[in-house]
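Team,

Forwarding the record for the chain on the shared tracking sheet. I've put the sequence and predicted structure together so nobody has to dig through attachments.
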Amino acid sequence: MKQLLGILLCMMLALPQKSFAQHPSSTSKKTRDMKMYGRVVDSFTNLAIADSKITLMTLDSTVVDTCSTQAWNKNAVHPESYFFMTPKVSEGKYIIKVENPKYETTYYNHEISFKTRATVIDLKDLTLKRKRMEDVEHNLGEVVVKSTKIKMVNKGDTIVFNAEAFNLPEGSMLDALIRQLPGATMNSNGEIFINGRKLDYLTLNGKDFFKGNNKQLIENLPNYTVKDLKVFEKSTEKSQTMGIDVEKKDYVMDIQLKKQYEKNFIGNTDIAGGTNSRYALKLFGLYFTPRIQVSTFANINNVNEDRKPGEKGDWDPTKLPKGQVTRKTIGLNLANSNEKNTVNNSLSTSVSWLSTHNITHTAAESFLGTANNNFTRHINNSTTKNTIYELNDQFRVNKSYHLMAMLWLNYNKFDNFSTDKSAVFQTAPKSLGSTEAILDSAFTLPLPQLSTYKGINRQLSQTLGNGHTLSSALDIYLGKPLKSGDRIGVQVKSTYENIKNYNFSKYQLDYLQEAGKKDYRNRYDESPSYTYSYTFNPQYIFVLPSGFNIITGYEYRQAGNYRNNNKYRLERLQEWQNEDHSIGSLPSLRDSLLRSLDLNNSYTGYYMSKQHMGVLGVHYMKRKGKNSFTFGVFTPLSYKKEQLDYRSEPITKVISQSNWIKQINFSGQLIHNEYEFVAWGNSTTTTPDMYSLIDRHDDSNPLAISLGNPNLKNGRQSSLGIRFSDKHNRRYNLPSIYFGIQETHNTVANGFIYDPQTGVYTYKPENVNGNWSAHSEIYYNVPLDSMKYFNLFTETEYNYDHNVDLTGVAGQTSSVLSKVNNHTTRQHLEVKYQKETLSLSLMGQLSWRNVNSSRKGFTPFNTYDYEYGFIGSYSMKTGLEMGMDLKMFSRRGYADEQINTNNLMCNAYVTQSFMKGRFAVKLEAFDLFHQLKSVDYQVNGQGKSEIRYNTIPHYIMLHAIYKMNVGGKK
């Protein structure tokens, strides 16, 4: 069965169909709603033909139904076009008429039988013969009228953005264009959100050879090569095979290249150097034809910031990449298909070398029930080096059967070194100053003087580590439609992961309440592990003529894990106590290392689970004109048996548990008069981690003792989501609205008992109830004038988190419930003016967080983050471009006074292009006033944390940009 089936089923919801009067040959005959689909192709090239008309007629030429081929990558050199119709027919013989102005009209005979339950007819490829030149009508060219370019339009269920309507700086990549899209946001990981909904992946002219690595595509494809960006829902590979949506649809963005950049080679080079030792090199090459696509790229830089001046002013400190990163990446993407696109393969591979330097300053407060809270100040300075290799290969066959095979490999070799300094106090140490000043005082002031600040403990540590992770996954799916109309499929999946981690640390702890009491440890940890799983999943779908489908299936899944967690206390060796050994040193003899083994905290674990699952589901779909209704409910029920063989010096035990895992998943979509309502929900049983059920005592960290709990219960996670969208093409649409709620029953909380004299936490997992959260968003984008020069974008977001956790202090027999309400409200407002090459935006945003609790002794607090500013750019006919963004970031209500600041952020650029735009010189300035700070804020039932991160220094950078296009032109 063709991959086209799933695509066309999706198109049935997205594309309006014309319907005509239907005339069954006899009213006494049975009729059935059928779904007919296929392609119209050139008889010589076998390429799809767009804008063709298909008419279904009875033998007496009475029209039953008609439709046209629809292209989902219309701007491609050879668009893929399909037709889809849903006629009500009776059994008998019919005529299919195929017309296109450039081709000879062709007739096909087709007989429809009701001997089976089949309601889907694959007409495959209907061929047309091209007319001779003298037979083709030629029309005189029309007068071109220049008008304002429309940025966005809704076409059914598809949002289409016109890339040429956006004014961007010279040398901008696709990421810059995406950030300018109305309602679009993008984070530092390359994750893209359209009106708050996350995109699953990107395709290029319908080809998904970048699938799974959006960032490669958006950071390397020049924006000037892009014609359109289309956003739509697409059925998954498995759903396309089975003919119905057995899985949630993917949310996809398809990047349409301009015709002059197809079937040619595109090259882009950007070399830059700047102040504060900043540098960047970016190379990208793309060869693209309808059958073969190849791209190579290289990216070397120490500027871990992909936002650029003049693109969009979302320089939010919470979104700023944390730390300083030096990156070197090379990669290759390769895709090819046969002439009919029934067999294709996509391969992507890359190698990256990363060097990361992170400095964090943390101000934390723990909520301790009826006792006074404690206050922690902490600084961590770490460097990490990674070598990462990744490979992703996807092979598909779409013929009378559908075969899909995916292979994924990832290897990560890492080395790290870090230093930590922290101190804990019984009262807020604000009088000592900033986090740095507080810690300097904690380690320089005499112990008696520190007691006036009620210091509890202080610690210094060094950590050195190395190791690697090897991960792999294989997923094979085979499906086939049967003559009865039913569908059968089978899926086999497997995963494997191997981890080796070696860690050294030197740790010095001083207890400030007890003069002279110290704890020094020189530790070495070995923690190799491996994990595997495999799944076998046959499925059978009964297709009923009424629009219902019944999904049945069985799944067997087995998973296993091995852990060998050996901890060594090198300071216990007599021969090491009299010498100073550098971190990373080990005894020369294996016997000496074994004598330092921490027997109480080392263990070996063998885990295995076996799960049998039965699946029963119902799917219903009904369409009438532009309106449609789709609903599906799935109720998997499984029996899961788990076993853990745990071996340590204090405890050697084999435990097991067997559970019925109950799930329910549903989704529905209603499209009425171009208004879309979508709802979905799920609920599933969760089981506690087997290692948490071992009644063990781990004191390898002297300040965080960990216990097990054999009495943990099963839990349940449930969620519900609702989304509304207005799909009309008109000036004033209704806003997009989203609401979601999540609830967890029997949440496993890591409750603790706290010793205020030593600062030691003793953690124990326990079940709690009452955790739930809600999220709502409203997006609205509207032009303010008839010419659409002015546009207003507003986004309102509210989050509520009712967090229930466990806290306690020494002397209590158990932890007590700590319930905290966390309200977060955010309002963003932006007005943008764009005419020709001039673009100006005014924007502002306010975020308010309120945290309160009915718990005794809890002091409510409020934090405010607000920002305002503008962004502008302008380009001249001489090739000169300039742009600037200026924003003020302000924060209030934080415990760390270094966060309660006003920071004026300014970025600017100027570009001059030469050689008809093929070469450009660009001067850009980042954070001119050196004001930007990266901060984060976290709060739950156990406490709150305010974290500051180091960032890249301000710089001025000069770019030399060269663009090459062989076979086309800009």
